[in-house]
Amino acid sequence: MLTNITKGGMLLFWLIFLYSFINPFAQPYQMIVFWFGILLIVVHLLEFVVYRKKLDKFNAGGSKGFIQTMLFGFLYWLPIFRNK
Fold it and tell me: What 8-state DSSP symbol labels residue 27?
């Protein structure tokens, strides 16, 4: 349940991140949202690279695994590892 709530918060952040390109926020909020989004993209990409072999081992990788890792990070792959 907590994982689903946190995933909802991540989706909300990504919507805010995308919205900030259409209608920029006042400073310094625009820069905070922008750099936090860039940081999350880099961290989630590194997570995918590190855990790709483990995800494929559980047959949970592929494009779906990449997209979910980029959106949710460890919130996607942690339950997979707990169940196996």
Answer: T
Q: Which residue is listed with tokens 């920029």?
A: 24
Distance, in Å, from the CA atom of 18 to the CA atom of 16, rounded to the nearest integer, reads: 5
d(CA 45, CA 67): 10
Q: CA 76 to CA 48: how far, in whole Å? A: 10
Indicate the SS3 state at residue 50.
helix
Side-chain-side CA neighbours of 2 within 13 Å: the count stands at: 2
Coil vs helix vs strand at 39: helix
Q: In this structure, what token pair is assigned to residue 67?
A: 């997209």
Kindly give the residue spans of alpha helices, DSSP state H, lying in the chain. Answer: 2-22, 29-57, 62-72, 74-83
Q: What is the pLDDT of residues 42-72, one digit of tens each?
A: 999 998 888 877 766 666 556 777 888 888 9
- Is the whole model's pTM more than 0.70, yes or no? yes
